[in-house]
Amino acid sequence: MSLVPAGKLVVEAAAGGRAVAAFNIITLEHAEAVVAGAQQAALPVILQLSENAVKFRGGQLLPIARAAAACAEAATVPIGLHLDHVKSTDLLRQAVDAGFSSVMFDAAQLPYAENLEATRSAVDWAHANGLWVEAELGEVGGKDGAAPLDPHAPGARTDPDEARRFVADSGVDALAVAIGSSHAMTSRTASLDHVLLARLAKSVDVPLVLHGSSGLPDTELAAAVAGGIRKVNIGTALNLAMTEAIRTHLTPADPRPYLAAARTAMAATAAAMITALN
Ligand code: G3H
Ligand code: ZN
Q1: What is residue 190's DSSP assignment?
Q2: Best mutation site among 211, 216, 239 for ligand 1 pocket (most ligand atoms within 8 Å of CB)
Q3: Which of 56, 76, 82, 198 has the fewest CB atoms within 10 Å distance of its CB?
Q4: Rounded Cα gap, residues 236 and 162, in angstroms
Q5: Contact at 8 Å (CB) between 134 and 37?
Q6: How many C-beta atoms lie closer than 10 Å to residue 7's C-beta?
Q7: Under a CB-based contact definition with an 8 Å cutoff, are residues 202 and 160 in contact?
Q8: How far is the CA of 234 from the centre of ligand 1 (A)?
Q9: How many CB atoms lie within 10 A of CB 176?
């Protein structure tokens, strides 16, 4: 049985100066592929379900959460389970019963004071219920189909002094930071503000999390880890691999050949990106 708390994997990675990869899953094939990729790389990994993925599943958290937990339990490497980009307090309150020990509460779209208030109240409830909590300050753009943020837009970069205050006042266990990545990029062409990352790593005493990591080349991923990132969130890279494999192997009726090809392609992507971080 290899299901372990995701927060523990992040804390262990931080203690070793490493990062743990956290992959967003949508289907059972995603979960199977990420576990296979982690086993190929012989390294721990986090399976994470976003609020959007739950919406895609008709608002039902349990079926996909239980499938992911079963994949984790059968794995030969440690696997964490994490609920990602939670905005709904109703979903937050389902986390424990659905088998999660960690969540990301996302109020980053709000002004600082409102983000802090919403996050602190989520953290109070989550800690009282045994959950480890990640939150976001500054906003990583490209969420929900939105265009990437202009680097000079307010909040497009996390301020190190605000970050220190936000962590102290909210009680979060990990902090997602805006340092130049953007969600849902289909090319690996982004670059990070490494000077800002170094300042954040000095200011903030909880593990730092990178979102929108599909848009970064391997060199930038490795530099992010060297600079202090301890959890690396990856989603779109899996979906690109899945879609390309289905397009290539699409059959008129039986879904198994193209789903098997998609799973193999996603496993290879996961293994390659886990390895790039290490
Ligand atoms: O929380 C999820 C990640 O930030 C995934 O972003 O799909 O751009 O890799 P990505
Ligand atoms: Zn994200």
Answers
A1: -
A2: 211
A3: 76
A4: 29
A5: no
A6: 22
A7: yes
A8: 5
A9: 27
Q: Could you list the pLDDT tens digit for every one of the 278 residues in the chain?
A: 699 999 999 999 999 999 999 999 999 999 999 999 999 999 999 999 999 999 999 999 999 999 999 999 999 999 999 999 999 999 999 999 999 999 999 999 999 999 999 999 999 999 999 999 999 999 898 888 888 888 878 789 999 999 999 999 999 999 999 999 999 999 999 999 999 999 999 999 999 999 999 999 999 999 999 999 999 999 999 999 999 999 999 999 999 999 999 999 999 999 999 999 99
Closest CA to 106 of 125, 92, 94: 92
Residue type, 22: A
Residue 165 alpha carbon to ligand 2 centre in Å:
22
What domains appear along the chain, each with residue ranges and CATH number?
6-277 (3.20.20.70)
pTM above 0.90? yes
List 84, 106, 159, 193, catalytic entry: 84
Cβ burial of 165 (10 Å; 0-12, 13-18, 19+) is middle
Identify residue 118 by its one-letter amino acid code: A
For residues 246 and 261, the answer to whether their CB atoms sit within 8 Å is: yes
